[in-house]
Amino acid sequence: MFASKFVMPLLAGAAIIVGTATAFAGPKIVSGPGADPACFKPWTDKTKYFQWEKKAGPYRIAVVNGFVGNTWRIQMIKTAKAFAEQAGIKEDIKELKVISTGTDVAAQLGAMEDFINQGYDAIVTIAVSPEGFDRVIKLADKNNVIVVPFDNVLDTDKVMMVNEDQVELGRQPAEFLIKEMGKKEGKILEVRGLPGNSVDRDRHVGFRKVMEAEGNKFQIVEVVGNWDDGTAQKVTADAIAVHGKFDGVYTQGGSTGTVRAMMDAKHAFVPVAGESENGFRKLIAAHAKDGLKGLSVGQSPGLVAIAMKAAISALKGNPMP
Fold first, then answer.
1. Closest-CA residue to 276 (of 302, 293, 253)
2. Which pLDDT belongs to residue 17?
3. Closest CA to 136 of 165, 107, 167
C-alpha cells in the first residue's frame, strides 16, 4: 500500500493513514500510542503518529464529496449530517458544510482551497483521483487545516486518511467466484466502478491478482458500471448481448442493476459477487431457491463519521496514528 501509514478504527473496520510532515506548518511526527486506541488502531507496527497544533473548539468542518450518483454517496452525506448532531459530537462542531463537486478534480481542489481560505478547521473528503492534491495539502498545512481523505484516498503519505483494505475487497469476490464455480476456467464479467478513483483501481487489482493467478484460465470481460444501478444494468445487458453466457460475475457497485439485467436477458443464475447493497441482498434472498448464489461485501457509508471523529480528535491536539 503506497508508502502510507495506516490506522484501523475498530468500530468501522477502517484505516487511518498518516505519513511525514511537510516543510510548512502541518503536523509533527510524535511517538505513540495515539488517541482512543480502542477506535483508532494502527494499520501496521510501522505506522507513524501525527500531532497537529491544538485548536480551541468548536470547529468548522467541511465534507467535500465528489461523485454523488448512487445511494451509497447519498447515505454518506446524510450520515455526516446526522453524526454532527449526535451528543458528544455536536458540541465540537460550530459549522458543518457538505458539498458535492462531481467527478472533476479541478472542481474538488477549488472547493477545498476555498474552504481553507475561509478559515475552516478541517476538510473531510472523498478524493475523485488518487493524485494531484499536493498543492492543496501544502496550502492546508500552511494554514493548519487538517485534511482527511476517506474511502477514495490519495497516493501520498502527507495526510491522515481513513479507509479499509480495498485490495482485499477485490480479492474476496474472486475467491468466492472460484469456490462457487468449482473450476479455474470460464468466462467472467467484471463490472468496474468509477474510473480514476482509488477504490475502483485497488479492488480491480485485488480481483485480478486472484483470477489471473498461475493455473487459472479465465476469460474476463470488463465493463464500466460507475457504481450505479442504472449504468451497471445497461453495461451488463450489453455485455450479455455481445458475449453470451457468463460463468460468474463480479460487480463493484450497482449490483442490483447487474442482477436485474441478467434476469431481463433470461441469463441463467450464476455466482455473483457484489457490493453491500440492500436491493442486491433482497434479490439473493428472493432467488436463492432458483440458483442465485451471491456474495455481498463492501464498506459502510458510516466511514465518514470515523473520518470526522478523527479530524476532531486531531484538532484537539491528540496524537493520531
1. 253
2. 52
3. 107
